[in-house]
Amino acid sequence: MSKPACTQDNKYVSLLHDLSYEAANMCVQCGYCLPACPTYESMGNEAHSPRGRINLVKMAAEGKIDLQQDLAEPIDLCLGCRACEVACPVNVPYGQIYEAAREVITLQQKEEQKKPSAGEKVRDQVLNNLFPHQKRLRLLGNATWLYQKTGVNKVAQKMKLVNKVSEPMGQFEKILPPVESPLKRYKFGDVFPAHGTKKMTVAFFPGCIMDAVMSKINRQTIELLQSSGCEVFIPKGQNCCGALHAHQGIMDEAKVLAKSNIEAFEASGADYFINNAGGCGAMLREYDHLFKGDAEWHERAKAFVEKTRDVTEVLFELGPLPFKKEWDGIITYQDSCHLRNVQGVAEQPRELLRSVPGATFVEMEGSDRCCASGGIYNLIHFDESMKILDDKMVKAKETKAQTIVTTNPGCLLQMKLGVERSGLENARALHLVEVLAEACDIQ
């Protein structure tokens, strides 16, 4: 498709045209995506709907509007949940359009040295100096364990010390689950034998947040896989999946991280590559798109994607699990957007919950709708995120569930905050792995 003449003098407009225009042109502006979009529902503005954003991308790619003044904010306020892709009757690849716009906007801001906001500075520090560094993340996790173990967190919360730095961070620090002792941490390179007859060998991806502050859920994941007949290997050399970088338009760093993961898991020789975080899994399953146009890495990425699975898929495939305890009460489920909308995994988590002895599973209205965690969206756009979350908790209350289950660390923290904000005193939010582990008497 030839470019409009107006794009020729602006390299950013030209790049956006190359990366997104053909995909954006697929949109017929039918509006089927509108009811699926949480930001359109909460903000009531066409610019914050999928078709509105796509139209803005098209106009920007034609040089008709300014990338920074007219496109940056609508793209920044998108949760990236990709529910619109599922609703779209003509299969518009919204994720590709969204990330292309992010990439070009970020590139222009960087190269033209536009002054970043305070939130953008924090974002850049975290993405560049923390997430790509496994040892730093573990050090942070161990420090958090000590912070909680010594009771310093209670003093800090009473004095609202974290809130003075960042109100959103203060809110989430308060509901952060207890971090497991560093002495119980698994090691990269470890191999955990299958219990009973070995059915397959799997390589486990522990992730970033999960590895740093939710390592207990990772350990329980390993033990559930073992109890299902899996030999579990944790490859050395793996790194952050790159999802947060890609969603913020930092594509070069996302590719560097992806290459290290592909190399590490290729060497494992495992039957499947397993993760337990919907957002990470979605990124891992789209590594082939990340390397489109790169002949060598695209083929290697395709092979990687073919072996990538969410833990619920494997546990369901190998089931039933060796349950030992009866569950008491009602359970409901909140989909991880990226597990459902990108990976296409929706029924396996529900079937696993229905299989728990004694549990009563009740479907929540709008469980397939985003909870507004959105990676770091709830830190950068806290008020917008809380508006969507509060509505979600109204639906959760209607189920009368004592346990709200999800399958992604960001969603889990969001639901924990939602429980506190809504005053659901007798309810708790858990990762699905925690529920299955408890029912199998895995501590």
Q: Would you give an account of this structure?
A:
GO terms for molecular function: 4 iron, 4 sulfur cluster binding; glycolate dehydrogenase activity; metal ion binding. Keywords: 4Fe-4S, Electron transport, Iron, Iron-sulfur, Metal-binding, Repeat, Transport. This protein has 443 residues and is of the alpha/beta class. It has 25 helices and nine strands. The protein has helices at 11-24, 38-43, 50-61, 67-76, 83-87, 94-111, 118-129, 134-149, 152-159, 161-165, 167-175, 209-213, 215-227, 243-247, 251-266, 278-284, 287-290, 295-307, 311-318, 337-342, 347-354, 377-380, 382-399, 409-422, 432-439, and strands spanning 191-192, 200-204, 230-233, 272-275, 308-310, 329-333, 359-361, 403-406, 428-431. Strands 1-3-2-4-5 form a five-stranded mixed β-sheet. A four-stranded parallel β-sheet has the order 7-6-8-9, sandwiched between helices. The radius of gyration is 22 Å and the shape is globular.
